[in-house]
Amino acid sequence: MALIAAPLSGRALAEYGAERIRNEAFEQVCLLWERRKAEGWTQKQLADEIGRDPGWVSRNLSAPGNWTVRTIGAFVQGLNGEAEMKVAALEDPVDTPTNYDAYDGYILEESNIIQLPIRIDVHSDMKPYQISLGVR
Amino acid sequence: MSMTEALKALQLSGELEPWIPVRTRQKPKRRLFLTTEALQDLRDPNSAINLLAWNNRATRGRIEANLDLWVLGGRVYLNKKRRFMCRLRPPPPEIWEVRVTEPQPQVRLFGRFLEPDTLILTKFRSRNELGDKDSRAWTTAMRDCARKWTQLFPTIPPFSAKTVHEYVTENCDDYGPDCCPAERARPGGIRRRKNKK
Questions:
Q1: Interface ipTM > 0.90
Q2: Closest chain B CA to residue A99
Q3: Global confidence as pTM
Q4: How many beta-carbon contacts under 8 Å exist across A and B?
Q5: How far apart are CA B23 and CA B64, in angstroms?
Q6: Does residue B148 contact residue B122 with C-beta atoms inside 8 Å?
Q7: CA distance B114 to chain A (A)
């Protein structure tokens, strides 16, 4: 039986947020780097631009493992770019909605999931916070 | 039985669960299914993964961010130095690992591809527990993954291809799917213990 997931909270939620934003920054920087590479830029050129050694550039363009805000800033400027940041509320609609959903046809429809009715019994001898759950 | 029917039957029986990111407004671009065991590794505070890092270093948050990266179509980096995921050297064949390299101790998520962009993760393991790449623990972990697959999909072999772009069709670095030679497990599988005289 699958466990009911407690939502992420505390430090785990903070780490989740940090990882998501770092991955997004990495992806955006890589996109610009690929464009610059196609224009003939080299890692050496980029390294000179931001005062780093080519090894550092190569390492950091291969994975976002050690990225900080400084790394992001250095790459954005070194690649002659500009970062735009937008923080949206989860309940806001997306800017460019899409109909494609990779799970379409792969997961159970709501109608296939059997919802068991739950009976809630509250007895007079129970403490106020006690509720017994049973399946009808 | 088709792949999608098999997947639905396994969801109905509670053996597999789709990973659907909740903290996003984007729609899924790739598919990920977790076994009950893998879900327990992730969510149970008493699992080996979480006991080593629970709350203190928040491993669960990092793992979930990586799972979301996969499903939301984020960049899958595979290069000589670092890899989001890679195919482990057989036997058994077609076992993949997703690497969660931060925070320490690192975590490895074992699984196989059912088809392009569809990953089935069977078990999460702490990197420390696995030891060296040629260790018995690695071989056991890979065999456990293969065994679980056979149990879940007795008539469906794992997806197999030559280039990484056949496994991950979009937003993926152009590099081979296999781990770097230095990291590969020994072809013979189990390391033989040397007799000390």
A1: no
A2: B27
A3: 0.84
A4: 128
A5: 10
A6: yes
A7: 12
